Amino acid sequence: MKGFIDKVELVAGLLLGAIAVLTFSAVMLRWLFNYGLPDAFDFSRLLLGTAMFWGIALAGFHNRHIQVDGFWELAPAWGKRAIDIFATVVTLAFMALFAWMLEGKVMSVLASNEQTFDLRLPVWPFHAVAALGIALAAILLLLRLIRLLAGKKEA
User: Fold this and answer.
1) What is the pTM of this model?
2) How many CA atoms lie within 13 A of 109 on its CB side?
3) What are 99-123's pLDDT values in tens digits?
4) 32 CB burial (10 A radius; 0-12, 13-18, 19+)
5) Which of 6, 24, 54, 90 could form a disulfide with 133 if both were Cys (CB 3.0 to 4.6 A apart)?
6) Residue 155: which pLDDT band, with cuts at 50, 70 and 90?
């Protein structure tokens, strides 16, 4: 399982790196040569959304998302475990619903033949990879839930 998590982290990192390279290149081309990189804005926004969704998958699995732990801190050990299980079940339910809804969005974008502004490249692959990130979030939350129910330590 560690290898799978490492691959998801690698993809998320590569997406962030691609955004940085694209933004830097677009700015430097504009500044040095007064030339705009075609579809730089479209690609950067699509990559940013995709990177965020893959990051959500990792944050859910590693339990590193924004949370308020005041009540959790006061709870006994069994209460903390119950809160963690309940929170993971609720988050898993919403991520599974989100993944299902995004699958419909991908099909909608594919059917509408939405394209980038300059190069007229199809947008649906970006939406599909983003939807895959949320589907991975649901899968990783399910793995986290199994680990919590089995009483294993945090990953």
Assistant:
1) 0.88
2) 20
3) 999 999 999 999 999 999 999 999 9
4) exposed
5) 54
6) low
